Known about the structure:
Oligomer: single chain
Structural class: alpha+beta
Strand content: 25-35%
Helix content: 10-25%
Number of helices: 7
Shape: globular
Distance between the termini: 56 Å
Amino acid sequence: MSAEYATFGLAPAMRAGGVLADGGYQVHRDFTDFIVDGRPLLFQLSDLDAVSPLASDIPPAIFTAHVRVLLLQAPAPLEGGRCVIYGCPECEGIECGAVTAVIERDGDDIVWRDFAWQTDGRADLELNGYHGMGPFRFRGDEYRAELERLLTDVGDAGPVRRRVLLIGARVAVLAKLAAALRTIGIGAEITSDAAGVPAEELRTYGAVAFGRAIGEQERAEVRTAFERAQVRVAYVDGLAPIVPLLVAQIEHALYRGPSECRRLTRLTVSDGAADVEVTSTCRVRLVAYRLDRLHRTHTRELFHGMLEPGKQRIPVDARAVKGQSFLVARTTGSVLVAPMVH
Length: 342
């Protein structure tokens, strides 16, 4: 086993929800990811749609139990001393598949080893092991300090602000947007006057989305209301009355993690191509939304496949992005939106 040390840390992360091009929904999940040697461990699993057991929407008692397992203060839940590192974002069942590993003490150190994909009570390392992943040796004091901080924060940090305040002139669009956000697990309320909302309620919002018809004076009044409540929120300027597009904008605004932990870092569209930049190998879906002269929405998937780290240029069919159009690029952990520049 390697004697070299890896650094251990934790950072906020999300599994991006959204309204998909085929009409389906993907649930939004906030969780705490493991940062090994400065990068999310999940990035070593290029095409895995998963979250860690440290999700923000589980009860505090269960969250604490997961942390104590990682601290080796409670027995490992799986045979062979194995712990779940990443699991299904929709449920906690091992049947859906999970990345597991043995977590053990070695003197004062903590070691994570024998990573594997597991769908039942026993892992088959020969068939389903991640042979190029780990082992990771962490300094015990550094490792415990990071995880114990989570135990200190349980119940004290307040609710994750996964609520959005919607302000716009088109009530029908706002109602559809609110319904879509609630379906994927993001709270949404509609108002025309944030000045009348109590400060304690304003503090529960993580973002404010403005419709295109909202003037600068109204926007300034909303910002003033939040400043008086002493809460910082992300402000979203709706690009067009297209619900999946607006959901994507809001998902991007709600991201709480550090910028270096993003997989998808850049999206621009011009000259018949989309320029996409990713920080690790991952699957990217690129969808175009277009409004025609009658304000009807047209949706078209332009790309769905694996991209290598770095800047990638993807050709775009001119018919899919003529006129007023927008592109949404999505990975499991992030989403970006860009208007088409003609």
